[in-house]
Amino acid sequence: MIVSQAKLHIESGDIQGIIDPSLHEEFDIQSIWKIAENALMCVQLQRHMRPLISEVLKEIQDAITIERVAAVAAREGNSDERLMA
């Protein structure tokens, strides 16, 4: 049920529909999309369609890098990198 609901939101482009409101929009939307798309790949029914754990780890590391770059940009006054609702 949760996977189905998340998949509907992601496929329709409504990523905000699945984001925890307690995050207070303190994230970069690009990293959220990266994690969401990766999560969808991890729940594929066919085993051969799922990514290797090393690929999942790399995607998570990439998302963390995006967040760090966005945080630096926000501290320097360039908040365009952050999600604005």
Secondary structure elements and pairings:
Elements: H1 2-11, H2 29-42, H3 53-75
Helix pairs in contact: 2-3
Give me some keywords for this one:
single chain; 85 residues; 0% strand; disordered C terminus
Summarize the structure.
With about 80 residues, this protein is mainly α. It has helices at about 1-10, 30-40, 55-75.
Description of the molecule:
There is one protein chain. This protein has three helices and no strands. Helix 2 (29-42) runs antiparallel to helix 3 (53-75). The radius of gyration is 14 Å and the shape is flat. The chain has one domain (2-81). It is mainly alpha-helical. The longest helix is centred in the last third of the chain and has 23 residues, at 53-75.
Principal-axes geometry comes out as flat
Helix content: 55-70%
Q: Count the E strands.
A: 0
N-C termini distance:
27 Å
The helix-strand sequence is HHH
Largest sheet: number of strands, sense, barrel closure = none
Count of distinct structural domains: 1
**In terms of structural class, how would the helical and strand content be classed?**
mainly alpha
Average pLDDT number: 87
* Low confidence ranges: 81-85
Rg over CA atoms: 14 Å
